[in-house]
Amino acid sequence: MGKKKRTRPKSHAHPRYWPTWCAIGLMRLAAWLPWRVKLWVGKGLGELVWRFAKRRRHITETNLALCFPELDDAARARRVRETFHANGIGILETATGWCRDPEHMRHRVAFKGLEHMEEAKAQGKGVLIIGIHFSTLDLGGALHSLFFDADVVYRPHDNPVFETFMTKARRRIFGAAIDRHDLRGVVRRIKAGHAVWYSPDQDFGREASVFAPFFGVEAATIKLTAKIARMTGAPVMPLMFHRNPDDYTYTLEYLPAIDNFPTGDEVADAARINAFIEQAIRKHPEQYLWLHRRFKTRPNKSDPSLY
Asked: Would you say the pTM of this structure is higher than 0.85?
């Protein structure tokens, strides 16, 4: 006999969800901590994960070895640890973005390339914003809302209590939060003239992808970016965002819309998107989500796993 499938409680007050409610409460509390304390707590969280999450550390080490082969062992080890620290701080940044009015952060952010976004909006075709999975992702979305309205494409969370909390928070920041599987919804919002924030830099599997170079390694790269651009005619706007070296301020920068995109060549189009993402990551590599198995899907099914 197979294992009996565990049923999901109907009530969000069920004891199974009490740890989730505690986590949400801690996030709300963390959002109001003084900035120095946020940095200290976030770095401490990152240090704990670095020490004890051996699997995630192995994934990060592998990604950095593949993408930065020029680093010697000591330099790569430092970057691995810095990555965990940055992503630990990112938890506090996410809490801040979700739980507080972004106006209180206006004095901390510099927004560059506003003219590029204004030019794209003036075309009247909507805009497809290319974001990246930096540790600053959700705070970046909140800071972006100080300057421009946008919708966001996201992956629903498996925990229904946290999903409700996360979606409500994102809908406060963005105009709409669209399930990543809802292509029609994305196209409909863009055709209605909206800007949609979309992050195509993760491994979504073989069926959804083509293989294109990412830091010189063939990586499964989602085809949907070019498909959305083709279906809508919307300009594709690269957006870079990061925490500055002072750890107190942030920079968001639009680059000019990608010209002649899409071309109809799926691999070439995917390679252009990857090239922009790589360019942005190289500015602050420790802030990227290297904990993700970016090279999980291999070009040939028989290729051994890199992880």
From this structure: yes
